[in-house]
Design goal:
364 residues, alpha/beta, Rossmann fold, seven-stranded mixed beta sheet, 13 helices, 14 strands, 39% helix, LacI/GalR-like_sensor, HTH_LacI, transcription regulation
């Protein structure tokens, strides 16, 4: 492992420039910063003071990396507000602190994490919104920093992860709608490269194939995961020459925007278009007709995520034997009125208040 002086000599730049680049100072140009971060990663550079703290287990800090965007700020029903409460309940038992590491949406997540790794400000990491190929996983593995991913990735062959059962949601939603006579079913998918979108779409396609329903790419609406994204999705559905009779949403707040745009056009959710949502965000609970949606306990998810991380940290793994396995996290379907009509008759079917499916599925 090289020190900062050796790193500067290797790059043929001053020690001060290397230090400023590692600390994200604005007076270093982007090309130099990239060179410094890449060299630091290659040679395993660790700043002396924080490096000693990490090796001695003294930082007592866990980092949670999330994407920071305008949507994150505007959406009060943020997914991570629930998850962090569960995480804190686990970490507090060991006097560990949790810090949020918000990566700006206009910055490359790998470069952002490179900077965090170079500073060594945490003992371990939780990364989220994993991409199909996620370079952050290789980075953390090479740096030997314990981590857990909230989301699967093709890069995560041997790493620990928990992922929501997006395939199960797509499969059961399609099966439910087909049982009510729907054949033209649309879905929303993230406009980004986040891996959950691929999993959700694959589950949707396979469910259609089982019923000999051709896959129609025009029924896959790619939008941002936000209330505004739901509004845009509804607008795109309304513009289709042959409209679907049902839509499955991938994000909780989409339903609010979708309802608003449909009603502006005189299209009534639950009467003219069946809607199944994803997680019942507090604001979405007041929608009429009531929203049929999949949900889970975010607190319990956070607890399991925290236990899994500590099970992969040598100092704590004896406290959590058997908690290091990968998990596909199930969701329950809360039945509302938004998807109860039969498009063949236009009549609604009565159902009990909720249908709960599956226990937690664990993969080795």
């Amino acid at each position: 492992m090289k020190g900062i002086r050796q790193l500067a000599e290797h790059l043929d730049i001053s020690i001060g420039t290397v230090s400023r680049a590692l600390n994200g100072k604005p007076d270093v140009n982007d090309e130099t910063r990239r060179r410094v971060l890449a060299a630091a990663e290659e040679f395993g550079y660790v700043a002396n003071q924080s490096g000693r703290s990490l090796r001695q287990g003294e930082t007592k800090v866990i980092g949670l990396m999330i994407e920071s965007s305008m949507e994150t700020v505007e959406n009060a029903d943020n997914f991570f507000l629930g998850v962090t409460s569960g995480l804190q309940s686990v970490f507090a038992r060991h006097k560990l602190d949790l810090i949020m590491l918000p990566c700006p949406s206009d910055e490359d997540p790998h470069e952002y994490l490179q900077r965090m790794v170079a500073r060594r400000i945490v003992d371990a990491m939780i990364i989220s919104e994993t991409h199909r190929i996620d370079r952050r996983i290789d980075l953390l593995s090479r740096a030997k920093i314990p981590f857990v991913a909230l989301g699967r990735s093709l890069s995560a062959s041997n790493s620990a992860w928990i992922d929501l059962d997006f395939e199960g949601v797509a499969n059961r939603a399609v099966e439910r709608l087909i049982a009510r006579g729907h054949r033209r079913i649309a879905i929303t998918a993230p406009s980004s490269e986040v891996n959950l979108g691929y999993i959700f779409l694959d589950g949707y396609r396979r469910a259609l194939e089982r019923h000999d329903i051709p896959f129609d790419p025009s029924l896959v609406i790619r939008v941002k995961s936000s209330e505004q994204g739901g509004y845009q999705a509804a607008n795109e559905l309304l513009l289709l020459e042959e409209r679907p009779t049902a839509v499955i949403l991938i994000y909780e707040l989409m339903a609010i925007g979708l309802y608003r745009r449909l009603m502006e056009s005189g299209v009534m959710p639950g009467r003219d278009l069946a809607v199944i949502g994803f997680r019942d965000a507090p604001r979405a609970r007041f929608l009429q007709p009531s929203l049929s949606c999949f949900r889970m306990s975010l607190y319990d998810l956070g607890v399991e995520l925290g236990r899994m991380l500590l099970a992969n940290m040598p100092a704590y793994q004896d406290f959590y034997p058997g908690d290091g396995r990968n998990i596909i996290w199930p969701l329950e379907l809360i039945v509302g009125e938004s998807d109860l009509f039969d498009p063949r008759t236009g009549e609604k079917e009565f159902e009990p208040e909720r249908l709960i499916f599956d226990n937690k599925t664990v993969e080795s």
